[in-house]
Design brief:
With about 170 residues, the protein is an all-alpha fold. The protein has ten helices and two strands, in the order E-H-H-H-H-H-H-H-H-H-H-E.
Amino acid sequence: MSGAPPLTLSRLNSMNQTGFTTALGFTFELSPWVVERAWSERPFASVEALHDTMMAVLDAAPADDKLALIRAHPELAGKAAIAKQLTAESTSEQASAGLDRLTPEEFTRFHELNAAYGERFGFPFIIAVRLNDKVSILAAMQARLIHDEAAEIAEAIKQIGLISKLRLLDAVIA
């Protein structure tokens, strides 16, 4: 999805930190620091090991870094999508769930839930849209509004893990 030819694990393992970060920086939405911090753990035996290391970096990150990563994600069917200002990965992912083809009623519901969620938590709702459709996303948005902030941060990080793993699997071959 990054637009470049698929990367091999062997090639990634041999890259310097700048090349590695540039090649995989798209994995975590506008937050290449996760990839950059994982570089020192090379070589990776598998794409799964690479992703596990990146998630360990994320888990060990300070709360402010985690919140910055969460806040780097766009609202679903939000202003950035309408203005075509999403990353290529987010554009494709939102389209895969039909979020680029909402009825006026669905768009209104997304807008209302995005606003309620943002007001409650101070960051955008995050879900692995490629594993969902607009109906399940709307249901999850509604259901997750009852979470407390700590539970919702944990859920956002879990969803970011799913999103980043799908992105890695698209881009890297063993």
